[in-house]
DNA sequence: CTGTTAGCGCCTTCAT
DNA sequence: ATGAAGGCGCTAACAG
């Protein structure tokens, strides 16, 4: 609802009338083409705009210009710290450039995801930043091929093809982390994931894990991959942890969390089982959401810069829109940081 | 970018042409007015729409209908778990009703906030859900008076006036929490806030605190209110904690965190000072973000249902838009929950 | 049942 | 330096 004045909607027409000029002139004024306007009329328009508190209708502008200056952003769960900070990064860059952000939460559901994409398209978004479930990748690729800038953030394409991507060095960092665990004397590492499915981020971490298990630990890691359903309280993974620990009671074992959710689950489960991270079993994994230092003996985590992931994704979109930068497909891999704490020491 | 076909933008006109009918008929078809269409043409249009993968342009629809079916949501920090879950609640309700969500992050800055609101207005949003900084409340009230539905979420109006509001029972719960601390034998409680300013939520909690300090603890709480600047690592409040504790070394003292950020700061500071929550000093406060149970001896927290706050705010907006429900100004106060753990015991 | 016409608010040639 | 006219894609009278 734009400001009103005695019941009349304030449009460019109304401003023109009040200022005694044509709407063409007002339009020029609004778009800063001052060279074509006399100082006199320019001032007159300015004062009318000011007085009426006129706000141009972006909807009408968009219809005419065929550009909404709006980016659609689709995340799998806006409630998770990772996603929300990712969105903050996106928002920060877009806002700076006068772009608007439409947000949708797929809840990791392919149907919701598809609906959200359709809605974005109908809204005439100028670009798409996606935390894809993987199920609609063919469709997304096709949209990109039709000319719509699409960037994958914290996900890569789950099918053959090329698309702009920004993500963390998932595989490499998982390898590094595993190597670190090996150096610390652990002989078996359990990989705990609240589902893997088509989630390429989790798959990338899994692949780094499997590789290092084979090459460094010298065993087939598939035996120690534990998928479970998270209930947010550790109940989903407790039995799997127990099984892992008892199966390898003769070894030095550690638990690896594929992400922050799994990490919380593991810690909750250990607490219920009266097991101490560090002393009884090694614990480490992805995502430092602010409390890793506070849970004794300090939890070894891999911290990601999700703000940067979002910011870079937004920058790519804007580059694509302006035609700037290398037109070749971009794959940005951002570093993460292994933060060693007590839970993987001795 | 809507789907293309040999370079032609697919519009309602194009569909009409292909189907050999007028665009009016196609429009009727799209809007489900099937009574006015013969089964034959109806089928013809359906197949053309399907074949062309036609998507109506919501921009054009909005221009015509003067309704964008879009709600603007302004939060102070989308990166915080409180806000992001709030947004999830909003998104969930809006999505269900086919409304879109434009998001902006004010970073608690009044200028950013004002710009975001202006941008929302230009985008012709049908309503506004705001996590107000307080600095633009007069403006927001005026917008509402001009007919734009505006709902305050997790904030109330900082100036005289009435506006739809959804928030947690901040004052009452803070009182309850203080009374609980009194019963537990604490005699002094420090109120720690990462800034209060015009933030009405923090002010409400402060007022509950001051009231109970006077009525139950029997002292002027203003002496034990500590405002500081958060750096995310506790460094901002460590000296204030130290001062509080040493000043009242003869008393049984507890620290109260005004929100989750302050809570993390306090815990980090205590850790650095080698002080134990619970044993050395009582600790409790707002926001349970999943780890309260895991930090020994368990941190007593006040858990808010921020999803519900968002969902209720969105429902009010939709009610206002549809004219349903009580037209009187609504003040929804949602319950929160005091979760007692070891940090306030003995 | 279907089409014609006009117009939402704005921008953009093309004249003047 | 300024304006008139047309059109972006869609909906809604108003006619038939």
Automatic annotation (TrEMBL), chains A, B:
Pfam families: LacI, Peripla_BP_3
GO function terms (MF aspect): DNA-binding transcription factor activity; transcription cis-regulatory region binding
Keyword DNA-binding recorded: yes
Ranges of residues in domain HTH cro/C1-type: 9-55
Keywords annotated in UniProt: DNA-binding, Transcription, Transcription regulation
UniProt cross-references to SMART domains, sorted A to Z: HTH_LACI (SM00354)
Ranges for domain HTH lacI-type: 10-65
CDD domains in the cross-refs: HTH_LacI, PBP1_RegR_EndR_KdgR-like
Matching InterPro entries: Cro/C1-type_HTH, HTH_LacI, LacI/GalR-like_sensor, Lambda_DNA-bd_dom_sf, Peripla_BP_I
Protein name according to UniProt: Transcriptional regulator, LacI family
Species name: [Clostridium] aminophilum
